[in-house]
Specification:
- The protein is α+β, with helices and mostly antiparallel strands.
- It contains six helices and five strands.
- A five-stranded antiparallel beta sheet has the order 2-1-5-4-3.
Length: 218
Amino acid sequence: SRTGVEAHQLALHAADLERAHVELRQARDELERQVAERTRELERTSREYREIFENAHDPILIFRPEDEKVLNVNRRACEVYGLPREELNGLSLKSISEDVERGEQQIEETLKEGVYNKFESVQFRKDGSKIFLEINASKIEYEGKPAILSVNRDVTDRRRAEELRLAKEAAERTAQAKAQFLANMSHEIRTPMAGIIGVTDLLLKTELGDRQREYARL
C-alpha cells in the first residue's frame, strides 16, 4: 500500500541520516585528533626553538625596525650587554650604538634583501665599554608584525688582540727605524769627529799660547 511505501522510504531516509551523522561524528573526531596532534607538534617545536634561542652561545635580539626597540633577547645577550632582561627589552639599540646612521642603513638593507650577513657594529655595554660585534640579521615576523632577528657575535677579544698585534708590529717597526737611524748617525758623526780629534791632537803639538792650548785641549 501507499502508506507502507512511504513508511519504508522514511525508514530508508532515517537510516541515511543516521549514517550521515555517524560519518560526520567520525570526521569530526578525526579532525579533532589531527588538530590535537598538530597542536602537540607545534608546542614541541615551539619549545625546542625557545630552548635553542635561550641557550644559544651568541647574543640574539629581536627588535622593531622602525625605532630599533628590542622586543626579546636571549640569556647570552643579557650577559654580553651587562643588562637584565627587563632593562634590555624595550631599549632602543640607537641609544647604545656608536654609529646610528650606519645601523639604520644596515636595517634598510636587511628589510630590502631579507638577510644581511656579517656586518660589523660597535655598541656599548651598561658600563660604557665598547662591544665589537659581527652581526647576521634576518627579516622575520614577530607577533604578527615585521621585525629583525639579529645574531650578534661578540668579537671584542679578537678585535683587541688584532689591535695589540698591529700596535706591537708598529712599535717594532719604530724601534728598527730608530736603531737604523742611530747606526747611520753614529757612522756619519764618527768620521768627521775622528778628523777633528786628529787635527786637534796635531795642533796641541805646535807652539801655542796658554789660552790657545787650553781651548784646543778642551
